[in-house]
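Example: Lipoprotein.
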Amino acid sequence: MELKYSYHGIMKSILTTTSTLLLMALLFMGCKQSMVISKVDYSQSIESVLKPDEEGVVKDAKHGLSFNIKPLQYAETRDTSSVTTEQVRYIRGQKGFYYITAPNYKNVYVMEAQKGSLKLKKKLSVSEKGVSRPAFNQRGEYIQLVNLETDEHWKVQPESITQVQSQIAKNEGE
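Written out as structure tokens, the predicted fold is:
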């Protein structure tokens, strides 16, 4: 049996192999790893206090965030016929969650930023009577919620809320 190799066949095989290798090299070079920056602290040092417009939209130009408060208002009052919430308070924690409440709300809403939306992660019950004058403070590992009218304090984390004694009350008890 005689094997015959033609010059044309060998060149075609070499060209095909070379083209395949070149194409694979280009594809692998284009598949660079994504850059990842770890240990990111998303925390916002000072709470934002926002007034909703007649449609219920609050806009925070400083932090580049706007959202409609009507779903939160409905969760609190079961009413969205008009905007009754006069101000909204929010702060962003280290892990990137938004903590949102308003005067006389009974809950703190922990929201997770998603593409074009804020998704409820957890609804944390604070008080059956509501918090009359809420204020958020950044405390490193957690968010502090204070009722400025009653001096009640809570330690707020993404999954839980715990009432704590205020520093003033601790000092008076000594």
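The CA atoms of residues 12 and 27 lie 22 Å apart.
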